[in-house]
User: Fold these one by one.
Assistant:
Number 1:
Amino acid sequence: MTIKPVCAAAVALVKHFEGLYLDAYLCPAGVPTIGYGHTGPDVRLGMAITEAQAEQLLAADLAEAAAVVDKYVRVPLPENPRGALASFVFNLGGGAFASSTLLRLLNLGDTAGAAEQFGRWTKARVGGKLVDLPGLVARRAAEEALFISGAWKPTPSPSPQPQAVIAPAGDDSDRIRRIQVIVGVKTDGHYGPLTKAAVVLWQAAHFLKADGVVGPVTAKAMGL
């Protein structure tokens, strides 16, 4: 059975929040990842792919996510809401979607109530406590906007501010993007306040000195 591709706006959203990595790296859960957030038995550390291959992997991954959406949603679904839900499934997994209040409300015909549920999926457990992660807050807001209005706007990159750049000397934008993928924030290559806050939370969750600086100890723990 052929799965209808997701809309272009959803593809752009996923690309924006996942970032593109042509060399495999370990995600925060220790899973080898490559391309636009692709994982699986075909990914191993040390491998590299082309941008064209990353596009192919993303198309397959989003088709799989869309198939989950099509399986569980029992009401008519325009392409933009479908794309928003495919991004949600791509990020959180089909199990989370299948058991979600978001899906239940949507299938009851409460589209507005379902849209409000996106904002509930922004937390991660850090130091035994559930806290909002900036990257998830931004992604859920973008998905909700796409779900409701069919449009979303990328978070603008912050203007360079020397006092906000606290990554170790010698870090280039690609390394900063890898850090941003690991801690779950927008991959813009700028080590600004939101990235620092996410690094602090990541350090605390991994029982490291939570100072927001990716020094040798934190870098080793991140697999950099």
Note: The longest strand covers residues 21-26.
Number 2:
Amino acid sequence: MSAGVTDEKVFRLDGLKWLLVALLVSGAVYGNYYFSAEPLLYRVLGLLLAGVLVAVVALQTEKGDAFWGLIKGARTEASRVVWPNRQERNQTTLVVVGFILLMALLLWGLDALFGWLASFVIG
């Protein structure tokens, strides 16, 4: 058994990668401003391309790798959730809508009562 072998990834030059991310974002913002006379479609495509490049560079960093691990863990947990069936979903929705209507009527009644009291006091 080799004691020196680990499964940890080595992240080098993270500071330079984050600087590159900042420069890419700044360049995308400036390019969007500079090419403001061009059609919107071209500018959106340029921003999307810049966003993909930023994501690729950012995911190569330690924090980017941790974020990607968080996303994978969230997807795993979401697949483990027992989602309600159609009947449960519809019943819960009806209960929520009914409660909202009840509270709206209650607040409307209180508003009318306070309005009547204010007009009674003011004269």
Note: The two ends are 92 Å apart (CA to CA).
